[in-house]
Amino acid sequence: MEMEALKYVLGLLQLAVTGWCVVIFNDVKAAKSEIAAHRLHTAENYTTKSESTRAYDTLNRTLESLVSTVNHRFDKMDSKLDSKMDRE
User: Fold this and answer.
1) What is the pLDDT of residues 9-68, one digit of tens each?
2) Is 65 part of any domain?
3) Is residue 69 assigned to a domain?
4) Residue 77 belongs to what domain range?
5) What is the full DSSP assignment across 46-61?
6) Which residue has the higher pLDDT, 62 or 85?
7) Which of 2, 57, 60, 71 is the most exposed place for a label (fewest CB within 10 A)?
8) In 3D, which of 72, 62, 23, 32 has the Cα closest to residue 80?
């Protein structure tokens, strides 16, 4: 009788461990799928380092040009104001 109870308990334990393994396997499978989806999203939507560098360089050149233009205009305004002041 004790042997029958032990077999019954071991059978239940085996069933529980098998069920737990199935749950863990399904969770790992879902995690792999989510990681693959995230990798695809990242590849489709984020820029590479070289693209970011090119964009930054273009923006930097544009800003330098803008600053140069503004400085040039201010210099012209300053010289016009100086010439007006000299006339007075």
Assistant:
1) 999 999 999 999 999 999 999 999 999 999 999 989 988 899 999 999 999 999 999 999
2) yes
3) yes
4) 52-88
5) S--HHHHHHHHHHHHH
6) 62
7) 2
8) 72
